[in-house]
Amino acid sequence: MKSLDDLSVTVLWGFLEALASALCMNIYVVGLNQLFDIEIDKVNKPTLPLASGEFSVTTGVSLVVAFLVMSISIGIRSKSAPLMCALLVSFLLGSAYSIDVPLLRWKRHPFLAASCILVVRAILVQLAFFTHMQVQALLTYMPTELQINASCSFGFMPDAATYSEEALRTNKDIPDVDGDRDFGIQSLSVRLGQQKVYRLCINMLMTAYTAAILVGASSPNLYQKIATVFGHGLFAFVLWQRARQFDIANKTCITPFYMFIWKLFYAEYFLIPFM
Predict the structure, then answer these.
(1) Among residues 1, 71, 87, 135, which one has the fewest Cβ atoms lying within 10 Å of its Cβ?
(2) Is the keyword Membrane assigned to this protein (predicted)?
């Protein structure tokens, strides 16, 4: 879409299909992980519904299955190959990440865990959903000419998401060291220590923002140059300020900092349309 003139009922419906199916699939993946992590979460996150006993295992299973069925049903109804591809791969990798059977439970291994998250969130979701929405727009105006038009922001999306997702993945395991170690989950925080992983997270984001600023500064488009340089400069400054106040020894600081990284991740999406 290049202007509001491209917005139609078909495009809006395609957007809602992608949003609803992705939300349901995300609930399935997160819920499945909690079902297989009940004992770990009693140590790491005792306030979660299953770990605290607020939800029974039966309730958890019912919700997970229901949201999986809803997600796949929406995908099938959409008749969108890119959307169905994203949902099916998310289902397969999300299941392999959590299910505790031989050859699965990939979250035990740092490389496999990172691969699952990066493939789905940093690459598949960006490319598949972009293609899905392009097809919806083209079906409205040029049904016989389904040509996918990429832009600079389209090329930037996977790169930005890769760094942000990797920072989120490494940061989320920092407070979970005790439970992960007890149950054999070899996260980076368990292997390297919380302080090293925290520094790695900050360095990855700072490197990404610096690279984005350099790329933006070389852009011939003035508006893209301003948006990219100023936006990522602001992200880097805010991150630096927050990092100065962070104390790895204070457990009450860890979760708010993790949520702050999520805010930076979503802020990137607001910046992408201006690039």
Answers:
(1) 1
(2) yes
Average pLDDT over the chain, rounded to an integer: 83
Question: b/e string for 165-185 if b means 16 or more Cβ within 10 A?
Answer: bbbbbbbbbbbbbebbeeeeb
Q: Phi-psi region for residue 105, left (φ > 0), alpha (ψ -120 to 50) or beta?
A: left
Residue with tokens 């879409």: 1
Threshold 0.85, pTM exceeds? no
Range of the domain at 244: 152-275
pLDDT digits (tens, 9 = 90+) for 160-185: 666 676 677 677 777 777 777 777 77
Q: What would the DSSP string read from start to end of 168-192?
A: HHHHHTGGGHHHHHHTT---HHHHH
What's the total number of domains in the chain?
A: 2
Q: At what angle do helices 125-141 and 9-36 cross, to 10 degrees?
A: 160
Residues 39 and 52: beta-carbon distance below 8 Å:
no
Q: Please give the single-letter amino acid code of residue 2.
A: K
State the residue for tokens 């979460």. 41
Q: What angle do CA 177, 182, 187 make, to 5 degrees?
A: 45
